[in-house]
Design brief:
It contains eight helices and 13 strands. It has about 325 residues and is α+β, with helices and mostly antiparallel strands. The protein binds alpha-D-galactopyranose.
C-alpha cells in the first residue's frame, strides 16, 4: 500500500481555525508518501528517510515518543482506539516537502499514514472529517501541539485547481476555483524558528479563549466587536474578526478572478497579524520586504507565526526569488495503490 499526503498552503484566514472561524487553504503538490507492507510480527517497524531514523513498537500498544515517531505511534494508537486494528507493518516514510517551509509536514504525514494504515487493515475509508479529527487528536495528545483543524482539513479535502473555504465551526468545506491566470504564488522560508513558536501559539489560543469568556460568547466566531476588552485582548479579537471578513473578501476575489484584490488582502492580513496579533519577527519582516522588492503585489506571514513562512503573490511578468517555492492547488490525500 502506498499513500500520499499533501502539504498545505493557507491563502488567508490565519489564527481563525481555533476560533471556529473561516480559512481559505489549498493542498500543495509537495507532500509525504508512506509505503506500508503488512508483516506477521505484530510490530510496526517504521523508517523515516528524511531523518535517517527508524522506530519499532508493538502495533497493539504504542507508547509515547518524540518527533516524527509520535505521529506514527499516535496514528496507530488512535486508529486502534477507533476499532481499526492495525496489523504488524513495515512503513517507509518519504517526503519532498522542503523542511521547515511552513507547509505543515505534520498534516501531510498524518493524512498519508492514516490512509496507508486503513488500507493495510482492510478498512473502507471513513468520513474524511473524522480522519482529520483523528489526526488532530494525534497532534494534541501524542505530539503535544494544540493546533486547530486547518492543516488536516486542507490535506484531506484538497482538490486540484481549488482553494477550500473551510468553516471551522462545523468543518464544512466549499471548493472555490483558484485560477492563477499567469500570477504566481510563492512560499519563502524566513529562516527563523523562534524558540517561543509553540508557547507563543498557545498563548494566543489562551488569549482568544479568555476574550471569548469575557465577551460571553462560546467562541470568537460569535463576537461582533472587541469593545470593552483590555489590551491586548481587544487587538487579538480585532484580528480574528477582520481576518474572517478578509476570508469572505478573498473568496469574492477568487470568484471574480481579481488577483490585485487578493494581493491587497494578503497585505492587510499581514498588517493585522503583525500589529494586532503580534506574531511577526524581524526575519519575517525582511522576507516580506524581499518578496515585495522582487515584485510581489502582496505578501504575508503564513502559519503559526513567530518565524516560519511567508506567502507572496507575484503578478505576471515578475520573477519570484529563487528561494520562493511556487505553489498551486493540488490533489488532497490519496491512496496511490
Ligand atoms: C498552525 C496550526 C493551524 C493554524 C495556523 C494558524 O499552522 O497548525 O491549526 O492555527 O497555525 O492559522
Amino acid at each position: 500500500m502506498r499513500a500520499r499526503g499533501p502539504g498545505r498552503v493557507n491563502l488567508i484566514g490565519e489564527h481563525t481555525d481555533y476560533n471556529d472561524g473561516l480559512c481559505l487553504p489549498f493542498a500543495a503538490e509537495a507532500g509525504v508518501t508512506v509505503d506500508a507492507e503488512a508483516t506477521d510480527t505484530g510490530e510496526v517497524e517504521a523508517e523515516s528517510l528524511a531523518y535517517g531514523e527508524a522506530d519499532r513498537f508493538d502495533a497493539a500498544d504504542p507508547q509515547p515518543a518524540e518527533g516524527w515517531r509520535a505521529f506514527v505511534r499516535g496514528t496507530v494508537a488512535e486508529l486502534n482506539a477507533a476499532r481499526i486494528t492495525v496489523p504488524g507493518a513495515r512503513l517507509r516514510i518519504e517526503s519532498d516537502l522542503p523542511e521547515g517551509a511552513g507547509l505543515s509536514s505534520s498534516a501531510a504525514l498524518g493524512s498519508a499514514l492514516c490512509l496507508a494504515l486503513l488500507a493495510l487493515a482492510g478498512e473502507a475509508e471513513p468520513d474524511r472529517r473524522d480522519l482529520a479529527r483523528l489526526c488532530s487528536r494525534v497532534e494534541h495528545d501524542w505530539v503535544g501541539a494544540q493546533t486547530g483543524m486547518l492543516d488536516q482539513m486542507a490535506a484531506f479535502f484538497g482538490a486540484p485547481g481549488h482553494a477550500l473555504l473551510l468553516d471551522c465551526r462545523d468543518l464544512s468545506v466549499e471548493q472555490v476555483p483558484l485560477s492563477l491566470g499567469g500570477w504566481t504564488l510563492g512560499v519563502a522560508d524566513s529562516g527563523s524558528r523562534h524558540e517561543h513558536t509553540d508557547s507563543g501559539y498557545n498563548e494566543r489560543r489562551r488569549e482568544c479563549a479568555e476574550a471569548a469568556r469575557r465577551l460571553g460568547v462560546a467562541s470568537l466566531r460569535d463576537a461582533t466587536s472587541a469593545e470593552g476588552l483590555p489590551e491586548p485582548l481587544n487587538r487579538r479579537v480585532r484580528h480574528v474578526l477582520s481576518e474572517n471578513a478578509r476570508v469572505r473578501q478573498g473568496v469574492k476575489a477568487l470568484r471574480t478572478k481579481d488577483m490585485p484584490a487578493l494581493a491587497a488582502l494578503l497585505d492587510a492580513s499581514h498588517a493585522s497579524l503583525r500589529d494586532d496579533y503580534e506574531l511577526s519577527v524581524p526575519e519575517v519582516e525582511r522576507t516580506v520586504e524581499r518578496m515585495k522588492e522582487a515584485g510581489a503585489a502582496g505578501a504575508r506571514i503564513m502559519g503559526g507565526g513567530f518565524g516560519g513562512a511567508v506567502l507572496a503573490l507575484f503578478p505576471p511578468g515578475t520573477e519570484p526569488p529563487a528561494d520562493a517555492l511556487a505553489v498551486a492547488p493540488a490533489e488532497g490525500a490519496r491512496l496511490l495503490g
